[in-house]
User: What shape does this take?
Amino acid sequence: MVYDLYVHAHKVPVATPVRGSATPAVAAAQPYKIVTAARVDSAFMSAIAIQPGQTSANGRAARGNDLFDVARSEATLRTFLHGLPGVDAVGADARAAMLATRSIKTTAKAFAIDLAIRMIDLTTLEGADTPGKVRALCAKGRQPDAGLDTGSPCPPVAAICIYPSLVPVAVAELAGSGIHVASVATAFPSGQAPLDVKIADTKAAVADGADEIDMVINRGAFLAGRYLDVYEEIVAVKTACGPAHLKVILETGELATYDNVRRASWLAMLAGGDFIKTSTGKVTPAATLPVTLIMLEAVRDFEAATGHLVGVKPAGGIRTTKDAVRYLVTVNETCGERWLDPAYFRFGASSLLNDLLMQRQKLATGAYAGPDYVTLD
Assistant: This one.
């Protein structure tokens, strides 16, 4: 079956937001007023609503059924998260498998390749990372197809994702490019550190110029059922981010069940995450299509309930153009074309870019260059 993405070329904004621009964000202290709960069970929504005059956990006066106030206590938060509709695991796997069979051709494929390039957070997160490696990665992010005959100008990537100590290097290299500087923080990849250490880690990265922070949740606390601890930690990190956007890494490979993926997604969004992200890339499995489908359903339902759009970032294990196209089809089929934008969907990847470039050259010239013609990152 041919699925034509090309029609979105004339509908979807294509420019990656430049540093300092006003990309829609969710403030941690902003209560979410329920607009509609078309896809969310109304029974538990009404069950958790608090009456005017009561006080929420953060000291704010309650305003009826403000969704934010589900986190006023451990009990109300647990009631909400465990009241979310359960995931049909068989159905999720089957739908993801069905969507993975979609294919696109020629002009639509060219559009999809360029869209995927613009959605990449080009990443290096190794203990051996050096300033020189980061400079080379930034140069590739600015002009991915340098030295290749790809027919038309290649778009830049969305962001360069690195460790906090290398943020100043990336900021200097990317000045004026519009490419974001994303830094992992909060004791990446384990998330096992005191909160004050995580806050200091985040503030230092932002002070050095990072405009996106990728934090990891405390999976131990989440799996132990300490949902309010996880929530409050995300809120604190969001506050420490200041103007920077926050991507919340769920590390879905450690969450054990699809129901937990859905609960963690809602928890991260309620706490103010601008993106929810599958994985650190350090745990197997990393991103999978069924897990990403569940997260996309969560952001779709969250937008239906609150009016706020939250992004999704699958990371780890996405290596080929076919993989990227499958994810783009899944985004469109699940959330719609508004999410077909770097402001709301990203790929956390390193090797994916090379395959996209080789496929781009093949479309332009008819010749497949092979991996020896692109840089090793």
User: Anything to note?
Assistant: The two ends are 34 Å apart (CA to CA). Residues 38-83 form one domain. The chain has a mean pLDDT of 84.
